[in-house]
Amino acid sequence: MSKPVKLTTQNTYGQLFDALFAKECATKCPAYAACGGHRLSAPCGCAWPTSSGKRHKCEECSLNCRERTKTGLNGSEPDSIPHLNAGSLLDQVMVQQNSEIRLPLFIPTKTEFLKDSDTLSALRWAAADMGTLFNMKGTISHFATRQSSQKYLRVGPECNLIAVLNGKDNRLERFWEMKRGTILKQLHDSGFSIGTGATFSVTDVTEKGTPMPYFHNATMLMRHHRVVQEIQVAGMEAVPNIYWIDKDQKEIQRWAEWLMKNPGIRIVSRDFTSTRNKHTVMSKLYELVSLLNTVGRSFHVMIVGTGIKIAPLVLRELAKAGHFGSIVTSAPIQLAYRNARYRLGDNNQIFTEKCTDRSVPFSDLMRHNMEIFEQALFDAVAGTPAEHKALSNVLLSEF
Q1: Dihedral angle sign, alpha carbons of residues 207, 212, 218, 221
Q2: Cβ within 8 Å of residue 73, ≥6 positions away
Q3: What Cα–Cα distance (Å) separates residue 360 from each residue in 66, 119, 325, 364, 377?
Q4: Residue 277's pLDDT is what?
Q5: Where are the domains of the chain?
Q6: What does pTM read for this prediction?
């Protein structure tokens, strides 16, 4: 360890890190290649204070820190490195996508909510998230064949299917423990042509507000990278989720360099399912746009789960920067399921109101909401460089 530093009011935490931890991280930490030394949480030991009652109780903790242990034949033994090495470094992953793929502005999820024998036969793209793909036992019985997938999702034989591997942490953990290669190959064989990387959670603080060991975040990101690799091996088009802890410039630069080394990637994804506040969404979006502009080519961004009122603004900001986008969401369908109806107002605003006419079939209300939402997205990109490339999914006409 480096010589101790005398602390003064002028010392920043960064200086403290450089003085105390930088050399140790670079020379002793197995996660350094995935992390590069993160100042907020070094040296990445147990995150729990003694007062929490959780300190060093690894059997009760889901975090992967450098001090993680398990009970073996010889007593307590280190257990952090196997969890880390189960993933892949970003530089170990190479992705090549089909350049002919063109995605529409709106891609619905939860199409299985459609009742009875009704079918969205004209739909050309639909997505299924982890809540749809896997039941609580971790099986995918609805997706044994192309025909069973289409029947369950209520789509026609011409519909392209996307596996969106985002979901709550418990589902992601269950997915990680599955025989993922077999599962992903089954999805491919049952009609899914695209898969997005699994968004294993990263955060700067724990549930108790203590610094999250970046060793854990590095482990989670490496899981994502491994799944992207496995999606490609299974035969699907692999779409990486580009995500990081807010304002983590080191990770942003890592993503930019990787995208430069993989010129065959033109479709990426960004998950906003846990972020609905407009200010937060736009802050994250501007970081993403800056990253993509650094790479120096145009991208198609699959935006997963953003709110319906923010979605048109997100697509417009992407388009103004020379990129294209698709909004992947279940909102128009789920709101119809709750008897809510969309109305398009002035300035491209989407309003939600109660449908008081009980005679309106759910399928008609759902289609209405999908059409209004897609129209709002078309209006959002009008007059931008994305206008001539915007594709419809529900309305079935080019802009």
Answers
A1: positive
A2: none
A3: 58, 17, 32, 7, 25
A4: 83
A5: 92-203+237-389
A6: 0.91
